[in-house]
Amino acid sequence: MKFYKILCFIFILSSCDTNQKEYNQSIEIDFKKLNSFVRDSLPSIIELDENFSDVYEKWDNLSLINSVKNIKLSDPRQLNYNLTALKNDIIKINDKQLPGKLDFPQVIGRFRVLKTDILKISTENIFTENYDTFKLHLRDIIISYNALNNTINVILSKSESENLDLN
Question: How many CB atoms lie within 10 A of CB 25?
Fold first, then answer.
């Protein structure tokens, strides 16, 4: 009887050790896949036009929004941290605090879509069966960020050309 107890104990210990090694290996593989996805499959970032930096300086929260760029620049092992920080920051931003030149329904709408996309991503889905959903939400965030930046660039360019035409 004592022999069977020892045999069961050894079997349990060896199976636990094997499961731990497989789990660590699967996490490593997921990070490699995630790194590949972030580097290769996410759209490139559209930057804000530097000619309008005086307008951007008036919007204090723009630096928080621009931290979306960190998604593509960061190590995928830190992606949970970056997304959690981004969620915490984006909640604080009120879309009624836009500076005058950016206070347009199009900019407000694009910001709200970006905010929604950031808040709906679940960082717990990276290692679950919802990995594909996580990747889609990550892509949506970049697309929304690009749409916001593009809208801001178009509106500021249009307002500058209208001002030049008036002069």
Answer: 10
Distance CA 138, CA 37 (A): 10
* pLDDT tens, residue by residue, 95-108: 777 888 888 999 99
Q: What is the mean pLDDT of residues 15-20?
A: 54
Taking the C-alpha atoms of residue 159 and residue 54, their distance in angstroms, rounded to an integer, is: 14
Give the DSSP per-residue string, the chain: -HHHHHHHHHHHHHHHHHHHHHHHHHHHHHHHHHHHIIIIISPPPPPPPGGGHHHHHH-TTHHHHGGGGHHHHS-GGGHHHHHHHHHHHHHH--TT---GGG--HHHHHHHHHHHHHHHH--GGGGGSTTHHHHHHHHHHHHHHHHHHHHHHHHHHHHHHHHHHHH-
pLDDT of 29 strictly over 70: no
Q: Is 48 left (phi over 0), alpha (psi -120 to 50) or beta?
A: beta
* 45 within 8 A of 146, measured Cβ to Cβ: yes
